[in-house]
Amino acid sequence: MTRDDIARLAAERPDFAAIAAWIPKGASVLDLGCGDGSLLRYLNETSAAKGYGVEINDLDIVSCIVNGVNVIQNDLDSGLSDFEDNAFDFVILSQTLQATRHTEALIREMLRVGHEGIVSFPNFGYWKNRLRVLLGNMPVSRELPYQWYDTPNVHLCTLHDFEMFCDRYRVAILERRVMTGEREVSLLPNLLGSTAVYRFQRGI
Questions:
Q1: How many Å apart are CA 116 and CA 161, to the nearest integer?
Q2: Residue closest to 107 by CA, chosen among 8, 7, 204, 203
């Protein structure tokens, strides 16, 4: 992967850079719903991270293999029983949380398999999404590119929703970054941020 490739990925997926900032050099990573393996390649280039991807789509599996990414074909909703406790430093769910059916079970599995978890997701509370709903339509955007009838998203949420979820299920949030494009948002993040990235661990 060239420097131009890294810069292009960072521009296309700002959450990649946010995630990479939390991954120490040489960390072991499990990327759930890894797609074509772009995040794992990015983390390998920026943090020398090693690990595996989990993906169900046949074409993405082929892309991972072509890209030299270790990948296992599996349905996330069936759990992570193939992996031992604390097998990885980080388990990542990047722009996939909203497409999972059993969110609580998957988050628990992430924290069984990894010492820490990282998720990124589109913030449904972003003002443009609210406006689109107010005008009578489901939002379609860079972060939410699907029409209502062909979307894989089943559990859209806001920042507040995710944080309430973590509080209810004893997930300890360590850090949060909220962005619109490549710009980090600190003022009214649930309203002005289009993408959220959270780092967390098992709570007490």
A1: 20
A2: 203
- Answer yes or no: is pLDDT of 1 > 70: no
Q: Any idea which residue has 């443009």 for tokens? A: 128
Q: pTM for the full model?
A: 0.93
Q: Is the pLDDT score of 11 beyond 80?
A: no
Q: Which domain holds residue 155?
A: 3-202
Question: How far is it between the farthest Cα atoms of the chain?
Answer: 48
Q: Which residue has the tokens 């780092």?
A: 199
CA 173, chain centre distance (Å):
15
User: What is the mean predicted confidence (pLDDT) over 135-152?
Assistant: 89
Residue in the structure block whose two tokens are 């920026």: 46
Edge-to-edge strand order for the sheet containing 28-32? 71-73, 50-55, 28-32, 88-94, 114-122, 195-202, 171-180, 183-184
Question: Which CATH number is 64's domain given?
Answer: 3.40.50.150
Q: Which residue has the tokens 């449904």?
A: 124
In the chain, the number of structural domains is 1
pLDDT digits (tens, 9 = 90+) for 61-114: 999 999 899 999 999 988 898 899 999 999 999 999 998 989 999 999 999 999
Residue matched to tokens 């074509």:
36
- DSSP secondary structure string for all residues of 65-133: HHTT--EEE--GGG--TTS-TT-EEEEEEES-GGG-S-HHHHHHHHHHHEEEEEEEEEBTTSHHHHHHH
Q: Output the CA torsion 42→45→48→53 (10° steps).
A: 30
